[in-house]
Amino acid sequence: MAAEFLATHGIDLQAEMSKVQFGNSPPGSTNPAASSDNDPPSSALPLPAPIPLTQLPSILLSTSATTAHTLTLSPTTSLITSITPSPSAVSPLLALPSLCHPHIHLDKAHLNSHPLFSHLAPTTGSFTEALTLTARAKALFTPADLLTRGNWLLADSAAAGVTHVRAFVEADATVGLACVHAGLALQRLWARRCAVQLCVFAQDPVFSGEAGAANRALVEEALRLGGVDAVGSTPYVEADEERARRNVRWAVGLAVREGKHLDFHLDYHLDGRREPLVWCVLEALRREEWVRRNPGRTVCLGHCTRLTLFERGEWERLREEVEGLPVYFVGLPTSDIFMMGRPGEGEGWRDRSRGTLQVPWMVEEMGLKAVLGVNNVGNAFTPWGGADPLGVAALGVGLYQAGTARDAEVLYECVSTRAKEAIGFGEGTLELREGDPADLIVYGKEEAGTELYRRRTTVKEIVCDAGKNRKVVKGGYQILVEQ
Description:
This protein is an alpha/beta fold and about 475 residues long. Helices cover about 30% and strands about 20% of the residues. The strands form 2 sheets. An 8-stranded mixed sheet has the order 1-16-15-14-5-2-3-4, with helices on one face. Mean pLDDT is about 90; it is low at about 1-10 and about 15-45.
């Protein structure tokens, strides 16, 4: 069934999976676990065809919630072609730009829910344990498993209103290019519903250990595949600071040579004695003349929890050093507050650091480019939360003590227009305009007889409690995905 369904979308499942190699398997071989009886019967589920829309009547825009409008859409050009007032509209609904995952792991999603990994449940919840369990899980990845869990993640995301995704797929000596090829298949399958931008990701060391050179070679090979638009790495997993800096310089140089976006998992700790690697990244970007040699490509720095220990002077220095560079900081609070700031054994009574970037403050007070992401869903790094970016925005209201109308606008932008900009999908505003991409969400119910339904007509209401009723539109087509 999976093969037939994928074939209707131009994907040859057998050809894609023949490319998948795990660890040291020779070309053409497959993981022995690939045909495991534990795998669900299908890695892909039939989805309703997107429905072309030419008009959205009775719509409220974010900054004019007292006047309804009619939006005219063009499924041919994928744009909003006109916006006209419709003062006689009854019970208008709020429309806002669609949502975005600027940072999410496609291949590690829902490990806690798949029977193949049921014996790898966390027992301590620590970061070290998460790294260990995930490494063991990767050795068990199968083609069907990767497609199944990837579909789970993308289905939940599309249903929530996510139309743009930066999806991390790992390449290393354990999984070979298996995750990359599964990502390419999912990218094509979901293309009409969600733009999946793949970032080949070096989770494992590339300058430490016996597999370092092999890991580097696999990342570089993956970048030459069509459909991979970004490269990412994790300098802090290297054996020492010098090799971490080599990791940074290698990744920056590679992105420039290949013309790719760049994405670091960076400074993921709260040790004030360690020099932040962010300075090394900024130095490398300028040395490689990023803006001139890699125009139009952005640089995302995820986690960066060490920066929360900065004094004001260090923040001022950071603002000066990023000036003129397309650098975006990505706060990942669901992961950060789960992992960071833990007390020592027997010290549970102590105060606990939030240990996550203060994103609204960075945007509003420091003028830095910062956004919010989900990061992981359903694994040892982040066992709680789902794929809805508005869940992260709502968390931000309490986490950042951001309860004003302006705070809500910033939080929504950080999971929508600012997030899209961070991963290279262009600039946008909270208020929909003529000529904008027809990628949006209409919040609420259109049907008659909904008197018991509380309409949400402001951005603040959406951020604080969005509800479940959302009409998702991508490129002028309504996207139908059951949850």
